[in-house]
Each structure stands twice: as structure tokens, then as C-alpha cells.
Amino acid sequence: MEYNGTPRPDSFTQGCRDFLRTLTYEDIMAWTIYAAPLAFMIGPAAMVAHDPVMSMVLHSLVGFCLSWMLHRMGHRLLVMLNNEPQRIFLSRSLRLPLTLTLSQFIWTLEVVVGTAVFTGILAKRCFMMGDTVGILMGLCLFAVGLGLFFAPVHLGRLWIKRYSPAMPLVGPTDDVINESFPGPRSLFK
User: Fold this and answer.
1) E strand or H helix that includes residue 141
2) What percent of the chain is modeled with pLDDT above 90?
3) The whole model's pTM is what?
4) How many C-beta atoms lie closer than 10 Å to residue 35's C-beta?
5) What is the rounded CA–CA span in Å between residue 13 and residue 1?
6) Which of 22, 31, 37, 46 has the most CB atoms at less than 10 Å from its CB?
7) What is the pLDDT at residue 89?
8) Can you give 9-56 as a three-state secondary structure string?
9) pLDDT digit string (tens) for 112-149?
10) What is the distance of C-alpha 162 from the center of its chain?
11) Could you please report the per-residue DSSP string of 89-113?
């Protein structure tokens, strides 16, 4: 027990909290946008490898659990930022005719990354066909997937520059970290 009556966190929880203290909000946004969809695609990647059905199911469950955890934690850490609806810009002057909150914007970018990874998986499948049409389709799908994969970097930079210029400099407070990562003991209470 600590001096204020709250239980002391285990070493794993404390290590994770220490790691989160080193991150800025920009880092957390990037991890949320990229890590969650990539972990989710573990299952579809197992399908391309022609793994047995049980292996695909296990890969899919592991991928879903990891992606859900990363997604949920990222959104919980970013909840303290300004969440008012903002316009979405594709360049410095070109904007889309919709407004999104930060949470909706991150969801959108996660879907774009997930689509990019899925397009890459389809491209690999087309390459494996071996004929000319398959190779051309694979190259086209790979190019589209590559463009989609790196689009969130550009869109995120525009969002940060326009609406949250302090995001690369500031990280979550200890209270936000403790709330968003309560530790494994909280699962058993």
C-alpha cells in the first residue's frame, strides 16, 4: 500500500505508464491510427498464407483483441483534447464539405489504414496468381494501398498544424494515464 491508501501498481502497469509518459499526443495519435488496424489485419494476413482454419480463427481473435486494446487506449488518452467538430482539409486550401470531431477523424484514419492494409493483402493474392493480369492487378492494388497507407500522415499533419499546434509538444498528464491504463488488477475487481 502507498501512503495515500491506494494500492501500488504492479511492475508491468508501472512500466506501461512510464512508457506512456514519454509519448506526446502526436505519438499517441499515430499509434492509434496505425497500430490498431495493423493488429486487426493479422487474421486476413493468415488467410493469404493458407493457414488451417483453426489457425486463422486464433490469429483473428488475437488480432481483434490487440487492435481493440490499442484503439480503446488511444481514444481514452486523446479524450482530453479539443473534441469540437472541425473542417477536414486535404491540402492547405482544399477542404472536404464535412466536419469531424477528433475522435471521428481518428476513426476515419484508422479505417483508411485498415483499407490500405487489406488492399495490400489483396495485391499479394493477385501476385500469387502468376499470370500477367494478376501481376498488373497486384501492382495497381499495391500502388493504391501504398497511397492509402501514407495518406493519414499527411492528413494528420494538416489537422495538427491547423487545430492542435501544441500536440507534438504536450503529452497526457498522470491522471489521464492512470485513468486510461488502470492495469490488469482492475479486470479482476
Assistant:
1) helix 132-163
2) 20
3) 0.80
4) 19
5) 15
6) 37
7) 87
8) CCHHHHHHHHHHHCCCHHHHHHHHHHHHHHHHCHHHHHHHCCCCHHHH
9) 998 998 898 888 888 888 888 889 999 999 999 999 99
10) 21
11) ESSSS-EEEEEE-HHHHHHHHHHHH
Per-residue burial over 103-139, b if 16 or more Cβ lie within 10 Å, else e, is: eebbbbbbebbbbbbbbbbbbbebeeeeeeeeeebbe
Q: Which amino acid, residue 80?
A: M
Q: How many CB atoms lie within 10 A of CB 88?
A: 18
What is the rounded CA–CA span in Å between residue 59 and residue 176? 31
**What would the grid cell of residue 90 be?**
486535404
Angle at 170 between CA 165 and CA 172, to 5 degrees: 130
Cell of 152: 493519414
Map residue 181 onto helix, strand or coil: coil
Segment (H or E) for 86: strand 86-89
Grid cell of 27 as nine digits: 505519438
> 57 is written with which cell numbers?
480463427
Q: How far is the C-alpha of 167 from the C-alpha of 161, rounded, in Å? A: 9
